[in-house]
Design a protein that fits this description.
By secondary structure, the protein is an alpha/beta fold. The chain contains 15 helices and 21 strands. It has 2 domains: 203 residues, 3-Layer(aba) Sandwich (Rossmann fold); 235 residues, Ribokinase (UDP-N-acetylmuramoyl-L-alanine:D-glutamate ligase, 3-Layer(aba) Sandwich). The chain has a 12-stranded mixed β-sheet, with helices on both faces. It has a 7-stranded parallel β-sheet with strand order 4-3-2-5-6-9-11, sandwiched between helices.
Length: 463
């Protein structure tokens, strides 16, 4: 079962559809508030709770949370600087039997629940709301945001004004884009989904779920498991890292196409020093990778052109992303190519292909739409834009991945999974999970080489 990631308008449409099918707005608020209250109860673990309620339906959810906690015997303080503005929120306020304070009492609780503003916020939090949020955040040891933290623009994951680091975020009904996009995602702590019974049939944009990988078939041999060709260039180290990662990620055979001497290469890695055209002419190749250590000169451009023209399923990374241009893609089947840009490379590609967008998601999808490529926009908020459309979002990975060479390892893993599966989107999605799992297994302060070696143990955990 997939978990859709919705825009603000899609979420509103899903709620309208639920009401057209017989649920009232009050029913939805009761479900949201009661579901969130279960998590608040667990997190609070008997500690006093302060609920900040705004004027809209997010504030209405807060009143339901407060009433549910009180019914369980919890100690709750509700603070609402203004009266509810919507009919359903007013009903929730009336149903709450406790006292409502206009300002934060001097003796505050231990756990803060932020219900000031929900997913539809489009302007900066200012005035008394901003002062209340600042004071409440500073005076509580644990903070919980309901749906999204107040001040976050849900469609692009940006803060509108001051930012706060929450310990937990409870997404109501469906994931929103901000639950996966930086910089807001870094401030949401542990994010959990609270279902409220919406019929979410559109999963064009979805959260990636941990995959299950299959062991090789009983009659497998090295070629049926997938032959990966890693095309080297000016610098020998990066493609070697990619090759080792590919060897550990399930490919049956890895060739490093290089004119360099590689005395430190593992014995199992085949070094192919034929001319590149000859080497790429091997019809048994299941997937090729070019970019790590390629260089950016004329020879590197020629090698990239040869790789694209070969027609093999292809992963383009690193230097290849600075050399790729529309003329190279002319006549190529772009749907068989995965590009793996980080933020700077993504900006460069958007410049080359005339894509204009003001956020990472927009740039990734715009590049996909302009080229037909499968775009894996990597980083702390990795986004996959499949060639066939939509977007896939991933849980935040380990911050220890911010080390030189980790992208070369990821590229090698993608190439291996592309050789195994034959499907660019599936390969990229599986590779992100393997890469993240390897980072956990490698421990703190690992090198890219240690990360590549950990890919084997990561793969075993997905079987």
């Amino acid at each position: 079962m997939t978990e859709p990631v919705l825009s603000v308008e899609q979420m509103r449409a899903a709620e309208r559809a639920a009401m057209e099918n017989g649920l009232s707005e009050w029913d939805l608020m009761q479900r949201a508030g009661a579901g969130a209250a279960k998590w608040v109860w667990r997190i609070a673990a008997g500690r006093p709770v302060t609920v900040l309620c705004g004027p809209g339906n997010n504030g209405g959810d807060g009143y339901v949370i407060a009433e549910t906690l009180c019914a369980r015997g919890g100690t709750v303080t509700v603070v609402a600087p203004v009266e509810p503005g919507s009919e359903t929120a007013r009903r929730a306020r009336s149903a709450y039997a406790g006292q409502v304070d206009n300002t934060l009492p001097s003796a505050s609780g231990d756990v803060l629940v932020d219900c000031l503003f929900g997913y539809g916020l489009s302007r900066k939090v200012e005035g008394e709301f901003a002062r209340l949020l600042e004071l409440a955040y500073a005076s509580h040891s644990t903070s919980i945001a309901i749906d999204v933290p107040s001040g976050v623009r849900a469609d692009i994951g940006e803060w509108l004004g001051a930012s706060y680091k929450f310990d937990h975020t409870l997404a109501l009904g469906a994931w929103k884009r901000a639950h996966f996009l930086m910089p807001a995602r870094a401030d949401m702590g542990i994010a959990r989904l609270v279902p409220i019974g919406l019929d979410l049939t559109d999963d064009t944009e979805r959260a990636s779920r941990r995959p299950h990988l299959d062991a090789p078939a009983p009659d497998s041999h090295k070629y049926t498991r997938g032959l990966v060709a890693v095309v080297a260039g000016e610098m020998p180290g990066a493609p070697l890292l990619s090759s080792v990662a590919a060897m550990h990620a399930g490919a049956g055979y890895v060739k490093l196409m290089s004119e360099h001497s590689h005395p430190d290469a593992p014995a199992e890695l085949v070094i192919d020093d034929q001319t590149l055209d000859e080497a790429l002419g091997d019809e048994r190749i299941s997937a090729a990778l070019i970019g790590p250590g390629l260089g950016r000169g004329s020879e590197a451009r020629d090698r990239l052109q040869a790789a694209v023209a070969s027609g093999h399923p292809l992963v383009l990374d690193a230097d290849a992303l600075h050399l790729l241009d529309p003329t190279m893609l002319a006549g190529a089947d772009a749907s068989r190519i995965v590009v793996t840009p980080h933020e700077g490379e993504l900006a460069k590609l958007c410049e080359i292909f005339d894509v204009v967008a003001d956020n990472k998601r927009g740039r990734a999808i715009g590049l996909r739409d302009a080229t037909g490529l499968t775009v894996l926009a990597k980083g702390p908020d990795t986004i996959l834009a499949p060639a066939e459309g939509g977007a896939i979002y991933f849980p935040r990975g380990s911050s220890w991945l911010s080390v030189a060479g980790s992208g070369d390892v990821l590229a090698g893993v993608i190439a291996a999974r592309l050789a195994v599966t034959g499907h660019p989107v599936r390969a990229a999605e599986e590779a992100v999970w393997l890469h993240q799992e390897a980072s956990h297994l490698a421990g703190a302060a690992f090198t890219a080489g240690q990360l590549a070696d950990a890919v084997q143990r990561a793969l075993a955990s997905f079987l």
